[in-house]
Amino acid sequence: MIPNSFDSIAEDDLLALITNGISEGRTIEYKRELPGNSDGDKKEFLADVSSFANTGGGDLVFGMDEDKNLPTQIVGLTSTDIGLEVQRLDSILGSGLDPRVRYAQKTVLCQDGKKTLVIRVERSWTGPHRVIFKGHDKFYARNSAGKYPLDVNELRAAFTLSSTVTERIRAFRTDRIISLTNNDTPVPFMPGSKIVLHCIPIESFAGRPQYDVLPSHLDPLRILLRPMGSSSYDWRINLEGRIVSNVPQPSSSYTQLYRNGIIEAVRGNLLGRNSEGNPVIPSVAYEKYVVDYLPSCFQVLQKIGVSVPIVVALTLTNTRGVEMGSSTFGFEDSGYPIDAETLVLPEAIVQDFSTPAGEILKPMFDLVWNACGYPSSLNFDPDGNWVVRR
């Protein structure tokens, strides 16, 4: 792929492809013109995009001439309205692939007035993706020679990878919940109920990546990774990567950044008591901790080079008999006690780091309120935005 951040791609990056003789292959392909409106052109375009998504991701460069798979010159696009062409391509991709793929498009303006279009297709962990345009029912992948249709064995392996990744993520989460329920933590930790937030990159279990988390003691990662709801903390390297925990110990909050990109943020010591002396969840405080902290996790993942999609999971441990504090201060009007020892809430798959935290977390928060006898969280406005109740 073009060795630059997508938003920063410029003419010099395209000229470097020519100078360095970067051949078409697994992660890049050159096209002189945009796809036409014929069925054949649309099928070819869909096959190109899906093959990148089903393999390792890649760049389609339109407006670049090639000879024997090598880029030769920037010829530019003949269309006078690139914006309309982008909309047309979006429409083709939206209706021609199942499931849809994630991609970005960027118009690159060259000094001589020529325009090129780069489409960057992300590696997909929710595939394999199939071309479904007008009965063209095929799956494609890529190798050094370009795209090719998957055979039966390769297709079976692709589906198996998708299901295996899901199973491995849930097995990891289950193992961590058991450990945390037993207070088996990486630092001495207060006993009792815990809020556990996991951010799990799908690629962590599909490609076995290792990220450089050791230099992350430098700002701004050190600030972003402060323990949930804490400002005074220790920061050190451990076997798993980097851990930050509040002081003094035993801690009531820590965040573990794993070398494979997983973030585990745990907050304890949060329950209060209502006027009857029953343990309650301070509804505003606990939701605010998580809503405020999730964007910091996303920023950390972006800075160390993690790609979406990300599985976000929320768990509450040691919850049997706990009620919801739904008043302004979080300790009255408690509804009904939770009858489950652990609330393992369904995961959310996040496809964009800019997705608002409240949008991701609301279904999880609602289920916690359901467990206490309420129809939904009281901390969201009619438009689904998280708000602080007064």
Described by strand count, sense and barrel closure, the largest sheet is:
8 strands, antiparallel
Shape: elongated
Estimated helix fraction: 25-40%
The count of domains is: 2
User: What's the pLDDT, averaged over the residues?
Assistant: 87
**Strand-and-helix sequence, N→C?**
HEHEEEHEEEEEEHEHHEEEEEEHEEEEH
The amount of beta strand, in percent, is 25-35%
| Radius of gyration over C-alpha positions, nearest whole angstrom | 25 Å
Structural class: alpha+beta
Oligomer: single chain
Number of strands: 21
How many helical elements? 8
Ranges with pLDDT <50 over ≥5 residues? 328-332
Span between N and C termini? 50 Å
Describe the protein's topology.
Blueprint: H1 11-19, E1 28-31, H2 39-53, E2 58-62, E3 64-67, E4 70-74, H3 82-96, E5 97-98, E6 103-109, E7 115-121, E8 130-131, E9 138-143, E10 146-149, H4 152-181, E11 194-201, H5 203-206, H6 221-224, E12 233-238, E13 241-246, E14 253-258, E15 263-268, E16 272-273, E17 279-282, H7 283-303, E18 310-317, E19 323-325, E20 343-344, E21 348-350, H8 357-371
Helix pairs in contact: 7-8
